[in-house]
From TrEMBL:
EC number: 3.1.3.-
The protein's name in its UniProt record: HAD family hydrolase
A GO MF term: hydrolase activity
Organism: Streptomyces xiangluensis
Domain of life: Bacteria
Transmembrane segments: none
Keywords for the protein's UniProt record, in alphabetical order: Hydrolase
Length: 210
């Protein structure tokens, strides 16, 4: 890193979400089960990701099995209990993949400044990152299930900036949820509402070629 690079760059650390930025789920198997059960596609996710169901999982207060149990309970008035549990398991075990383009961009970032993953995640996050070959992607991982606070609570952003060793107003924050981006910008961070890799690519043009 040269003095001129340090002086001219618009931020000194990147704080990046995981799901729907780096990691993407294949919901087709679940959708097929929902159709077979006579449910509208997305019903299970609506139930499973409702704050009252999802937040205890994301704060590390319940296990994935307990989360599946709560989904099954909520769906049991619409489908038989056995099918409700099958739907909950299909959501919990949905296959996922990493976006190779975004991973390459973020590995490039890490060669020049701290990269911190900031994610509302479960206690299984470390295993998931390992399965994708991403255990070494970031300098630090700030997981809601580990720190006990979830986005968009300002505390999780402050934890991430502290671990980056960078003032909040010198951090770039990337997330697919607008409410999370808006929370970051209230702390002075540069916010990016992520839709596609180009959203990140154009912000990294100032980095020198590796």
């Amino acid at each position: 890193m040269t003095p001129s690079e340090t002086f001219s760059r618009p931020f000194d650390a990147v704080l990046c979400d995981l799901d729907n930025v780096i990691r993407f789920y294949d919901m087709a198997p679940l959708a097929e089960l929902e159709r077979a059960a006579g449910l509208a596609e997305g019903t299970t996710a609506t139930v499973g990701y409702a704050p009252e169901t999802d937040l205890p999982l994301l704060l590390g207060k319940i296990t994935k099995k307990e989360w599946v149990d709560s989904i099954a309970s909520a769906l049991s008035d619409r489908v038989p209990r056995m099918h409700a549990r099958e739907l909950g398991m299909a959501l919990a075990d949905a296959p996922f993949r990493a976006d190779d383009m975004v991973v390459a961009l973020l590995r490039r970032v890490r060669g020049h400044m701290p990269l911190i993953l900031v994610t509302n995640a479960t206690l299984e996050l470390e295993r998931d990152l390992e399965s994708m070959g991403l255990s070494d992607l970031a300098d630090h991982v700030v997981s809601s299930a580990r720190v006990g606070v979830a986005k968009p609570d300002r505390a999780i952003y402050e934890i991430a900036a502290e671990r980056a060793g960078v003032a909040a107003d010198r951090c770039l924050f990337v997330d697919d949820r607008l409410e999370n981006v808006e929370a970051a910008t209230t702390l002075g961070m540069t916010g990016v509402h992520y839709h596609e890799p180009a959203d990140l690519q154009k912000l990294l043009d100032f980095l020198p070629d590796d």
